[in-house]
Design brief:
Blueprint: E1 8-11, H1 17-28, E2 32-37, H2 40-52, E3 58-61, H3 67-80, E4 86-89, E5 98-99, E6 102-103, H4 112-139, E7 143-148, H5 163-182, E8 188-193, H6 211-222, E9 233-235, E10 238-240
Parallel strand pairs: 1-2, 1-4, 2-3, 4-7, 7-8, 8-9
Antiparallel strand pairs: 5-6, 9-10
The protein binds NADP nicotinamide-adenine-dinucleotide phosphate (NAP).
């Protein structure tokens, strides 16, 4: 019998795309996975799909832009499991304008209301999740937080186009560093990850990577050993410049 604790993981936006694959792989790795999504029906469908593959996950509804919904999840985790070990801030949106299939290039032409909405989900949603759930991690002196970012948010590769999305992922990267710095002494490791260009509803069917390839580094970071790097950006299991 192993004395290792049964690790509990929460994945946001896990009813489809990269989040669903991360949930599948973490469950296969033996973690207890709480697959969260904002539409309960979609969550139950995803749960059934995984069950048909022999993969068992728990499901809970969650809208990361709704503080009441996040609090409900925190209460549920405390009551049901009494712990949280892994948080994957995967849920994300991209609302930037496209014309003739190409992103509108000038930041000066961006739709500010879309930029605000994108920040609300991709940045403040992730921040709210961390604020609400970090106390549960601190109680066990263990935590792994993975913020699913993008190469489009890297300052070293910053350019025109995708204004709201780029701003949001750059801010998510900054958030990663800030949180990591505050919890270094708590055995809580916080990193950002770029999954690459992945065939999902967001990435489109012409993207170069499968969801398995996109999920790989995220799942690897979720299981980082104590003392692993924190406050970094990874792609393909390798540290990247911000
Ligand atoms: N695909 C790529 O090429 C690519 C590249 C770089 C980074 N990423 C990042 O990878 C992550 C996952 O992307 P994906 O390609 O899997 O996208 P996706 O297929 O569009 O899935 C996005 C997920 O986020 C959920 N979501 C959106 N807003 C939410 C909210 N307020 N509360 C809870 N869930 C919400 C969606 O739920 P609904 O089904 O309810 O809408 C869906 O489950 C995102 O952070 C994205 O920015 C993707």
């Amino acid at each position: 019998m192993s004395n290792a604790p049964n690790r509990v993981a929460v994945v946001t936006g896990a009813n489809r795309g990269i989040g669903l694959e991360v949930a599948r792989e973490l469950a296969r790795a033996g973690l207890t996975v709480v697959l969260t999504c904002r539409d309960e029906v979609k969550g139950t469908e995803a749960q059934k799909q995984l069950a048909s593959e022999g993969v068992k996950v728990d499901v809970h509804s969650l809208d990361i832009t709704n503080s009441g919904s996040i609090r409900d999840l925190a209460l549920y985790l405390r009551k049901q499991y009494g712990r949280l070990d892994v948080l994957v801030n995967n849920a994300g949106i991209m609302l930037d304008k496209f014309e003739n299939g190409e992103p509108v290039m000038s930041i000066l032409d961006c739709d500010l209301s879309n930029v605000r909405k994108t920040m609300e989900t991709n940045v403040y949603g992730a921040l709210s999740m961390i604020k609400e759930l970090l106390p549960l991690m601190k109680e066990n002196h263990y935590g792994r937080i993975v913020n699913v970012s993008s190469g489009l948010g890297q300052m070293s590769e910053m350019g025109a186009g995708y204004a709201g999305y780029r701003l949001s992922k750059a801010a998510l990267n900054a958030l990663t560093c800030m949180v990591a710095d505050e919890v270094t002494s708590e055995n809580i490791i916080v990193n950002a990850c770029c999954p690459g260009w992945v065939r999902t509803d967001m990435g489109g069917k012409h993207a170069s990577r499968s969801v398995e390839e996109g999920a790989d580094t995220i799942v690897w970071l979720c299981q980082a050993a104590d003392g692993s790097p924190s406050g970094k950006l990874f792609r393909d299991r390798e540290e990247q410049p911000w």
